[in-house]
From TrEMBL:
GO biological process, one term: cell wall organization
Transmembrane segments: 6-26, 54-74, 80-102, 122-140, 160-179, 191-211, 231-250, 257-276, 282-305, 332-352
Positions contributing to Mg(2+) binding: 184, 261
Species name: Amycolatopsis xylanica
Protein name per its UniProtKB record: Phospho-N-acetylmuramoyl-pentapeptide-transferase
A single GO molecular function term of this UniProt record: metal ion binding
GO cellular component, one term: plasma membrane
EC number assigned by the record: 2.7.8.13
Similarity comment: family membership: Belongs to the glycosyltransferase 4 family. MraY subfamily.
UniProt pathway: Cell wall biogenesis; peptidoglycan biosynthesis
Gene: mraY
Function: Catalyzes the initial step of the lipid cycle reactions in the biosynthesis of the cell wall peptidoglycan: transfers peptidoglycan precursor phospho-MurNAc-pentapeptide from UDP-MurNAc-pentapeptide onto the lipid carrier undecaprenyl phosphate, yielding undecaprenyl-pyrophosphoryl-MurNAc-pentapeptide, known as lipid I.
Membrane-topology descriptor: Multi-pass membrane protein
Catalytic activity: UDP-N-acetyl-alpha-D-muramoyl-L-alanyl-gamma-D-glutamyl-meso-2,6-diaminopimeloyl-D-alanyl-D-alanine + di-trans,octa-cis-undecaprenyl phosphate = di-trans,octa-cis-undecaprenyl diphospho-N-acetyl-alpha-D-muramoyl-L-alanyl-D-glutamyl-meso-2,6-diaminopimeloyl-D-alanyl-D-alanine + UMP
């Protein structure tokens, strides 16, 4: 438990102190955000706001994780070494953050709102997903558990739905690209993605910690969880939660800096990685319900427009629909945060109720 608190505190501290430094550096370099011409009129004033602030989130998350392990090592703890699962989830987040960084950098250099083309971004996500999928099925512990499994999961693996190795790679790609794009779509208002991601990641701190307390590695019982390194996954999620909260201090409306694709793709990858390593892939859809709805709104908008030549929403992602309907930006943000919090609480309720059902 102490390592979780240390990771969260270190992530928060690094993020809240590093972000203003990045604001000054990026402002001097002219690394400003370009704004969509067809977007809400109020967003025009945001043009030139420093972007790529996701660098602070990624660095704070990594520092928070390793500081927690360093302090454990200095205190002589037997579990001081980073785990395969924790490192793999960090790799996924950082690698997708690099893809997002390239996208942001191209936008800045070309001074347009489009960075990497769709093909380049999808190829980047595909390469990362393939590496993750291959590594996730290796590094078995003494109980034979690997960081991820080939079975689809809800709150634990569903034995009746298992993927052959090739299809598991495809499944990983769908999950990783889906979550990274979902968070990316949500990142359209000041603090919306950062605040929502902090809630989702905090939920995963609780889930992973609960799995560690009821690990089958400690005592085999009907309600135990076959998850590799659950406590270390809680440390990763805690470090990322602290990083998001620290960044949100500067990203909340009116934002002094945007996370850009660097942050949104990294956070989406983090949610994807945590869902697979904690065996909660289907439950994650509920926990990250806001992100899912935002992505669905984009898909639905495109599908309806291509078939009927009419728009389902005034603008997608659908947080912009409410802005164009006359809602103030802060009203949309706060109400969407509330929706995200409701999704997280409902997801936690489902997780706990399933555990009670199995244990009873």
């Amino acid at each position: 438990m102490i390592s979780i608190l240390i990771a969260a505190a270190a992530g928060l501290l690094v993020s809240i102190l590093l972000t203003p430094y990045l604001i000054r550096v990026f402002s001097r370099q002219g690394f400003g955000q370009e704004i969509r011409e067809e977007g809400p009129a109020g967003h025009k004033s945001k043009r030139g706001t420093p972007t790529m602030g996701g660098v602070a989130i990624v660095l704070a998350m990594v520092v928070g994780y390793f500081v927690a392990h360093l302090i454990q090592w200095m205190s002589g703890s037997k579990s001081a070494a980073p785990s395969a699962s924790g490192l793999l989830v960090l790799f996924l987040a950082v690698a997708l953050g690099v893809v997002g960084f390239l996208d942001d950098f191209i936008k800045i250099r070309k001074q347009r709102n489009l960075g990497l083309n769709k093909t380049a971004k999808l190829v980047g996500q595909l390469v990362v997903a393939i590496v993750f999928a291959i590594l996730a099925l290796n590094f078995a512990d003494s109980h034979g558990l690997t960081p991820a499994s080939e079975s689809l999961s809800y709150t634990r693996d569903l034995a009746l739905i298992a993927f052959p190795s090739v299809f598991f790679i495809i499944f990983c790609y769908i999950v990783i690209s889906g979550w990274s794009n979902a968070v990316n779509f949500t990142d359209g208002l000041d603090g919306l993605a950062g605040g929502s991601a902090a809630m989702v990641l905090a939920t995963y701190v609780v889930i992973a910690f609960w799995q560690a307390r009821l690990s089958c590695a400690d005592a085999v019982q009907p309600a135990c969880y076959n998850v590799r390194d659950p406590l270390d996954l809680a440390v990763v999620a805690a470090a990322a939660t602290g990083a998001c909260v620290g960044f949100l201090w500067w990203n909340a409306a009116p934002a002094k800096i945007f996370m850009g694709d660097t942050g949104s793709l990294a956070l989406g990858g983090l949610v994807a990685g945590l869902s697979m390593t904690t065996r909660t892939e289907l439950l994650a859809i509920v926990i990250g319900g806001l992100f899912m709805v935002e992505m669905i709104s984009v898909v639905a908008q495109i599908a309806v427009f291509r078939t009927t030549r009419r728009r389902l929403f005034r603008m997608a992602p659908f947080h912009h629909h409410f802005e164009l309907a006359g809602w103030a930006e802060t009203t949309v943000i706060i109400r969407f945060w509330l929706l995200s919090g409701i999704c997280c609480m409902f997801g936690l309720g489902l997780f706990y109720s399933e555990q009670l059902g199995v244990g009873g």
